[in-house]
Amino acid sequence: MLLNYQVSLYDQNPFYLDKQLQVYLSLHQKMNLIHHKVYLPLFLIEWVLVGKLETQES
């Protein structure tokens, strides 16, 4: 699910990307702390990996 979300983010311009990331983070902060600590690092790691993959493809 996170991977699909990130791919759709990368279709947008950087300003929109930042805005969507802020929305995602604010939603994440409303979840309980355990899930926040587990899933947020995973999201950020995947976010970077997707960015590297798309950079290589283009």
Q: Averaged pLDDT, please?
A: 67
Structural class: mainly alpha
Cα separation of the termini: 24 Å
Helix content: over 70%
Total of DSSP H or I helical runs spanning 4+ residues? 3
Biggest pleated sheet: none
Query: Which outline best applies?
Result: elongated
Radius of gyration: 12 Å
Low-confidence stretches: none
Order of SSEs:
HHH
> Approximately how much beta-strand content do the residues carry?
under 5%
Total E-strand runs: 0
Verbal overview:
The chain is built from 3 helices and no strands. The protein has helices at 2-10, 14-30, 33-57. The longest helix has 25 residues, at 33-57. Helices cover 88% and strands 0% of the residues. The radius of gyration is 12 Å and the shape is elongated. The mean pLDDT is 67. The chain has a domain at 19-58. By secondary structure, it is an all-alpha fold.
In short:
This protein has 3 helices and no strands. The chain has 58 residues and is mainly α. Helix 1 (2-10) crosses helix 3 (33-57).
Topology (elements, then pairings):
Layout: H1 2-10, H2 14-30, H3 33-57
Note the main attributes of this structure.
mainly alpha, 3 helices
